[in-house]
Amino acid sequence: MQRVLEFTGWEPSAHSVDWAAVEEELRIPLPADFKQLCEGFGGGTFCDSVAFYGNVEGSRFNFLLPWQAPLPLPAGSGPYQEYTPGGKGYIKWASTEWGAEYCWLVDAQRPGTHPVLARGDAGEWCEFDMSTSEFLYRVLADKDFQPFGIARYDLDPTFRPGPEAHGS
């Protein structure tokens, strides 16, 4: 997380989250570094391109919205299914304006295992054995992190909180 903070120049906020309630709703523990990212950034946009779902309240950048207001999934979503509490599948925690999605592949029977699963704009899935914050940093700052890195576009290294962001 420290490298993401340094890259964006963001001063960490103080977003208080009841993680026990969130994890109870999902019936699975979430990665510790994701929790730190949520508490330090809340929800918002990195480099004007990567939407980070770090809020647990409101309607924008809300990590829990898929479970609170489920939408039907398109047919043929590939080899992975969206996670349902107590089951296994992917949980989306970020996306880009180009259609890429950044998720974890989780299984309630194997709590604590959170490989990053990314789907590119062409629909291909790739699995990465790294933490959420390491993956996010590489997306933002590593020009050689293909096909998911955005650093090759030379975007400003910024973070903009969502309109519902607030410290508590």
Walk me through this protein's architecture.
The chain has one domain (2-67, 80-159): SMI1/KNR4-like. By secondary structure, it is α+β, with helices and mostly antiparallel strands. It has helices at 2-8, 19-26, 32-41, 65-68, 132-141; strands at 44-46, 50-52, 88-96, 101-107, 116-119, 125-128, 159-161. The model has no long low-confidence stretch (mean pLDDT 88). The two termini are 20 Å apart. Strand 3 and strand 4 form a beta hairpin. It has 5 helices and 7 strands. The longest helix is centred in the N-terminal third of the chain and has 10 residues, at 32-41. The protein has a 7-stranded antiparallel sheet with strand order 6-5-4-3-2-1-7, with helices on one face. InterPro entries: Knr4/Smi1-like_sf (IPR037883). It comes from Streptomyces narbonensis. This is SMI1/KNR4 family protein.
